[in-house]
């Protein structure tokens, strides 16, 4: 080992960057204190050893190619970013030659860019959040539960880990998937959605992994499959619990290795996809009863996100309802109606077994069929009203004065009679015991005309 002049030794020792020098035989000859800290190793433990000794065998081919190009002079320098022990490092490699152009060794300088990368990702994440909000954020909520879920989404979106989203039907699992993809570095690439429950059993492999022409009857052309279509992006496997065991075995290998083989083909292809799966069934119970593979479950359940039902986050019901009212009113080119207090109470008292999806459909119906500028309980679907256990008509005196309460009851009663007489005015007036003219005036007052 060539002695290092004191001034250069002092410079190297005080550098913030980690410095390693490998001689022409790729043996480590210099390791400064910063490199010790970055690599979490003492200099005396690695000086005099080959660079290959301190790296796992799987990395040897890549290291050999890099150092070989350095030594041959075809690659004077190189840069790459690596992740190790929870931190990110920018490594620069420089070929060192003497005045005659003879290769002396390789200088490796490592810079810890963890904080820089974190700030960069945080800025990009905030940009994506703002962009998502400007486009109409897929999540509308007011509850602390959903706030925590949003924070989780923002944390896991930049990662590559597989995500399993669970929750009852209609809770908004697909919206969570959309948001994860939008906030991820893969957002420029496709988000491919697959409903596993809708795949024919005999075509599952073909749909997911593709097939070659002539692989089976009806395969008239090559088909790349969903994994290939999602390359560079995200593949969303919805209703993953509906996959048969035979398909789970094959999908397990693909998720592990990211290698697919089309049906009827012999060539294996690497695919760069992030997997997000969702289910409304209890996969733990499915594992216990033998309908779902345990190894497949653990492969999917790397990061779990559970979406609670709407009845457990009542604070979100009214914000969601008001958002849907505005959406459907604009879509139908109608004035935006207000949500009355009685209608609010019905929505809050309903168990809402269909969750957000049921609420959305209920509001769509109310906006479509409502005649006035206020949504009343009678504008809501009958099945939702019946499940509240509250009888029509209703108007809470606590929330209004006597005049408003009487008007609310009268409006509801007129709506009921109109509905029972299929909107016909003469029989409705007779049922109410008033003239047709009086009925017309009241309908105008309560804005009950279409």
Automatic annotation (TrEMBL):
Domain PAC: 75-125
Gene Ontology molecular function, alphabetical: ATP binding; sequence-specific DNA binding
UniProtKB keywords: ATP-binding, DNA-binding, Nucleotide-binding, Transcription, Transcription regulation
Keyword ATP-binding found: yes
Coiled-coil positions: none
Domain of life according to the entry: Bacteria
Residue ranges occupied by any Sigma-54 factor interaction domain in the UniProt entry: 139-368
Alphabetical list of PROSITE patterns matching this protein: PAC (PS50113), SIGMA54_INTERACT_1 (PS00675), SIGMA54_INTERACT_2 (PS00676), SIGMA54_INTERACT_4 (PS50045)
GO biological process: regulation of DNA-templated transcription
PANTHER family named among the record's database cross-references: PTS-DEPENDENT DIHYDROXYACETONE KINASE OPERON REGULATORY PROTEIN-RELATED (PTHR32071:SF117), TRANSCRIPTIONAL REGULATORY PROTEIN (PTHR32071)
Entry protein name: PAS domain S-box-containing protein
Organism: Desulfuromusa kysingii
């Amino acid at each position: 080992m060539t002695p290092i002049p004191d001034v250069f030794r002092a410079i190297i020792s005080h550098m913030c960057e980690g410095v390693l020098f490998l001689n022409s035989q790729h043996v480590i000859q210099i390791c400064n204190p910063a490199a010790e800290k970055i690599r979490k190793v003492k200099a005396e433990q690695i000086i005099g050893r080959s660079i290959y000794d301190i790296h796992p065998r799987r990395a040897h081919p890549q290291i050999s190619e890099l150092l070989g190009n350095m030594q041959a002079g075809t690659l004077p320098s190189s840069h790459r970013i690596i992740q190790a022990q929870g931190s990110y490092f920018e490594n620069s490699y420089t070929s060192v030659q003497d005045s005659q152009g003879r290769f002396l060794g390789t200088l490796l300088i490592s810079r810890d860019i963890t904080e820089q990368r974190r700030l960069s990702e945080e800025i990009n994440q905030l940009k994506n959040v703002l962009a998502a909000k400007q486009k109409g954020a897929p999540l509308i909520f007011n509850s602390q539960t959903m706030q925590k879920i949003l924070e989780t989404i923002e944390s896991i979106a930049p990662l590559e880990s597989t995500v399993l989203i669970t929750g009852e039907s209609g809770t908004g699992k697909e919206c969570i998937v959309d948001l994860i993809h939008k906030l991820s570095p893969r957002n420029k690439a496709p988000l491919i959605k697959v409903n596993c429950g809708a795949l024919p059993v005999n075509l599952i492999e073909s749909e997911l992994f593709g097939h070659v022409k002539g692989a089976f009857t009806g395969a008239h052309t090559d088909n790349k499959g969903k994994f290939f279509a999602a390359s560079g992006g995200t593949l969303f496997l919805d209703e993953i619990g509906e996959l048969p065991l035979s398909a789970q075995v094959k999908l397990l290998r693909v998720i592990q290795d990211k290698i697919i083989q089309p049906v009827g083909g012999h060539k294996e292809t690497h695919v760069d996809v992030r997997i997000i799966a969702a289910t409304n069934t209890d996969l733990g119970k499915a594992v216990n009863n033998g309908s779902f593979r345990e190894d497949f479950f653990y492969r999917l359940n790397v990061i779990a996100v559970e979406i609670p039902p709407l009845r457990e986050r009542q604070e979100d019901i009214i914000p969601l309802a008001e958002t849907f009212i505005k959406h459907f009113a604009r879509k139908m080119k109608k004035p935006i109606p207000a949500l009355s207090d009685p209608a609010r109470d019905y929505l809050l008292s309903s168990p809402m077994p269909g969750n957000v999806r049921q609420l959305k459909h209920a509001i769509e119906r109310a906006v479509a069929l409502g005649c006035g500028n206020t949504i009343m309980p009678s504008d809501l679907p009958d099945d939702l009203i019946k499940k509240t256990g509250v009888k029509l008509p209703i108007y809470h005196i606590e929330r209004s004065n006597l005049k408003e309460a009487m008007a609310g009851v009268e409006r509801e009663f007129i709506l009921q009679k109109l509905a029972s007489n299929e909107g016909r005015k003469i029989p409705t007036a007779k049922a109410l015991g008033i003239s047709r003219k009086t009925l017309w005036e009241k309908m105008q007052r309560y804005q009950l005309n279409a």
